[in-house]
Design brief:
- This protein has ten helices and 15 strands.
- By secondary structure, it is α+β, with helices and mostly antiparallel strands.
- Helix content is 32%, strand content 25%.
- α3 crosses α4 and α7 packs parallel to α8.
- It is globular, with a radius of gyration of 19 Å.
- The strands form five sheets. The protein has a five-stranded mixed β-sheet with strand order 1-7-6-4-5, with helices on both faces. Strands 8-15-14-13 form a four-stranded mixed β-sheet, with helices on both faces.
Length: 330
Amino acid sequence: MNHTPQYSVIAGTGSYLPPRVVSNDDLAAELASRDIQTSDAWIVERTGIRQRHLAERGVTTSDLAFEAGRLAIENAGLQPQDIDLIVVATSTPDFVFPSTACLVQSKLGIKGGAAFDVQAVCSGFVYALTTADSFIRARRARHALVIGAEVFSRILDWNDRSTCVLFGDGAGAVVLSASAETGVLAAQLHADGSQTRILCAAGNVAYGEVVGDPFLRMDGQAVFKQAVTVLERSARDVCAEAGIELDAVDLLVPHQANVRILNFLARKLHLPADKLVVTVDRHANTSAASVPLALDVARREGRAKPGHLVLMQGVGGGFTWGSVLARLTA
């Protein structure tokens, strides 16, 4: 038996956005046709969002996940057949079952390895990445495809301007590979189920009918207060676990919910603006897809480089939150 420790490293990243771009002005005009008033200035001031990508009807979460996953595998210099674990984080699966991960596996033309979904809403990718890292450390997998993918436009109430302006569709992915090097240094996951009502989509299908409210509902002020509090504490705790000082972090890649939350968090952590990755202006809130999307953008723009310490954080409905600290090797 091999007793040499096995770790995981991020070997590749990829992302995919639906081609349809909807600006704030486009959205304001669409809402105005229903006598719902908003504007680009109103949205930007409160959220920092300027546009979002929306999937066409019939485009599924597994479609977006497949595209992002394919690009991540290619970026890692691997073939689909090398992947022996697929974990998909999503709150908008194609079906009740089978899992979106199984559908992605089929679209990649592979079979045999484990494939399953993780549901932690906007923290989903951090949960999925931590899960895949555990599989690799336990020698249950060598190359894991970890995807965050959402078609949130399916569960939005387009008559509620307080929520429909906030979200977009997309997918991001990483390939996590076994290595003698330590890529993922530390991870922490948390939840507080007593806070379920501040952010939820509480409807379901039962006996052939929609039961309850099928749309996303959010108490924005409560979410803001919870988010900045738990993310700051989580950042400090995960760095302490790794024995890393916060100021040694090269890039902070938090869940892209609202630019106010992002800027407030960076200030509380005493991290300069150039260490904060912001994509919410271009993508809006893509839930479980937001962190891997932002990481892939940072790598393609040359901001995330080999050797960099990257702190990835998620916070979302459940109420869930968590952080992963990783050193990039590719």
